[in-house]
């Protein structure tokens, strides 16, 4: 039997993991992503001076045995390393160092390293937003937002955040309704470079009672270029309240919140804000993946399995098994 042609919409960790598994087992696979490059929420931004920022996912943990094995391989390949930073919490100026915690992994030299490697072995078209997935005879026809016909496929998987999956799943209304029920919290992120170290005895900080929920000395991660660079993440409450404001207006508010919370001077050389409209599912689904075997339409992503990097991987594995069974 000829294996079905598969289209994957989204080149984040879920979409690329799925693409690699299916490509390696002989499926013809095409991946589409609206971004300039792969990685989605595991992206890394490069600043003019050569520094980098992981402005989305900060680190990841591995509890699932399959993911632990995968992470072990990435470590061997030099794509991932443990971030042995100083972690702790900060509440109204009081620093509490964390003495125990999980092993925290990061991509090397940036969080996007794994996605870049995965993408190198798949047929990926970047810079194209898929707008429609329509039934045509026995297949799904994909069209871009500019009206370009992107091809027909027997299997289509939307590996995008839940709200973006809803219109792509219109051919499977039950799955579209499941996706529509998943709320995803937004997150404002600030990327700031400094000429001198920020006087805080931590590298990864969980903040409480502040407009910020997290701050990281990004330059303390393994394999990063020299310098002093921080990433600040706003709380969901702050982000919702300031969702439609300009990045230039949001950055100073969060830098000031950081200075206040840490009780230190915060004078960056440069700072930019980035809005993640769909950062994390609250809460995520637990079924692993959504897939309709009768029509070959489905979805995967962190929001199907735990709202984290690990969940994106686990979800891709779950949908790949269902596609393999369908094609038998
Ligand atoms: C600010 C922030 C902090 C985070 N911190 C952590 C953390 O510390 N630890 C952790 O484990 N996780 C963290 N996460 C979550 C983690 O980043 C995600 O769980 C994971 O990256 C999701 O991968 P994914 O493949 O499911 O989705 P994504 O990475 O979102 O990939 C989806 C892709 O689909 C593309 N796309 C969307 N719609 C279309 C369309 N119509 N056509 C074409 N392409 C489309 C997008 O461009 C994107 O590349 C964080 C996320 C954010 C935003």
From TrEMBL:
Gene3D superfamilies: 3.90.660.10, FAD/NAD(P)-binding domain (3.50.50.60). It holds the Pfam family Amino_oxidase. Signal peptide: none annotated. Residues 99-323 form the Amine oxidase domain. It comes from the Bacteria. This is Amine oxidase domain-containing protein. It comes from Archangium gephyra. The lineage of its organism: Bacteria, Pseudomonadati, Myxococcota, Myxococcia, Myxococcales.
């Amino acid at each position: 039997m000829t294996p079905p042609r598969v289209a994957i919409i989204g080149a984040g960790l879920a979409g690329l993991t799925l693409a690699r598994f299916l490509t390696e087992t002989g499926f013809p696979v095409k991946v589409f992503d609206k971004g300039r490059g792969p990685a989605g929420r595991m992206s890394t931004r490069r600043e003019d001076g050569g520094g980098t920022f992981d402005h989305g996912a900060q680190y990841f943990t591995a509890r699932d045995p399959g993911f632990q094995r995968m992470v072990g391989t990435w470590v061997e390949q030099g794509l991932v390393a443990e971030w042995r930073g100083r972690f702790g919490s900060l509440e109204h100026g009081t620093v509490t160092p964390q003495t125990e915690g999980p092993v925290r992994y990061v991509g090397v030299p940036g969080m996007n390293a794994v996605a870049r490697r995965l993408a190198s072995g798949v047929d990926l078209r970047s810079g194209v937003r898929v707008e429609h997935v329509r039934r045509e005879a026995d297949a799904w026809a994909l069209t871009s937002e500019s009206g370009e016909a992107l091809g027909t496929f027997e299997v289509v998987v939307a590996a995008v955040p839940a709200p973006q999956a809803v219109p792509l799943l219109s051919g499977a209304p039950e799955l579209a309704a499941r996706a529509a029920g998943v709320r995803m919290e937004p997150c404002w992120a600030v990327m700031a470079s400094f000429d001198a170290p920020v006087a805080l005895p931590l590298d990864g900080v969980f903040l409480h009672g502040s407009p910020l929920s997290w701050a990281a000395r990004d330059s303390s991660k393994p394999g990063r270029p020299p310098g002093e660079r921080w990433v600040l993440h706003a709380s969901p409450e702050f982000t919702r309240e300031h969702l439609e404001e300009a990045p230039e207006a949001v950055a100073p508010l969060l830098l000031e919140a950081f200075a206040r919370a840490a009780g230190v001077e915060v004078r960056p050389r440069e700072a930019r804000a980035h809005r993640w409209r769909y950062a994390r599912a609250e809460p995520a689904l637990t079924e692993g993946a959504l897939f309709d075997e009768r029509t070959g339409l489905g979805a995967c992503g962190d929001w199907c399995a735990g709202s984290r990097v690990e969940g994106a991987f686990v979800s891709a594995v779950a949908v790949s098994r269902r596609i393999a069974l369908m094609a038998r």
